Amino acid sequence: MGKNNTTILIIAMVLTTAMIMEEAKSYPICNTDTNDLQKCSPAVTGNSPPAPGPDCCAVVKSADLECLCPYLSRSGIDPSKIKSVLASCGVGNPSCLSW
């Protein structure tokens, strides 16, 4: 591999790493952050999701669920699965989960 090809390969690797890191950024929302919300993803996806783990419950307990209502209603997640996670974590339903 020539010097120019090696330089191009290194630049491509750096750019790829930068893009991956950009995608992994977390954004604060409703007293939690977007990466933390992903800890509950297994418990609300699929036909028979597992019970939420302790990390998910910690996120649910610290999040402002009323603030999350607009996002929950547009998330496409089955409300019964969200309610199940909240119940398993010992958290009451926000007002928007009456649907």
Automatic annotation (TrEMBL):
All copies of the Bifunctional inhibitor/plant lipid transfer protein/seed storage helical domain together span 30-96
- What does the record give under GO molecular function? fatty acid binding
Q: Could you tell me which SMART domains the record lists for this protein?
A: AAI (SM00499)
Q: Give the residue range of the signal peptide.
A: 1-26
The record's section on Gene3D superfamilies has: Plant lipid-transfer and hydrophobic proteins (1.10.110.10)
Q: Write out the GO biological process terms.
A: systemic acquired resistance
Pfam family name, one = LTP_2
Q: Which InterPro entries match?
A: Bifun_inhib/LTP/seed_sf, Bifunc_inhib/LTP/seed_store, DIR1-like, NsLTP-like
Tell me where on the tree of life, at the top rank, the source sits: Eukaryota
Q: Which keywords appear in this protein's UniProt record, sorted alphabetically? A: Signal
Q: What is this protein called?
A: Bifunctional inhibitor/plant lipid transfer protein/seed storage helical domain-containing protein
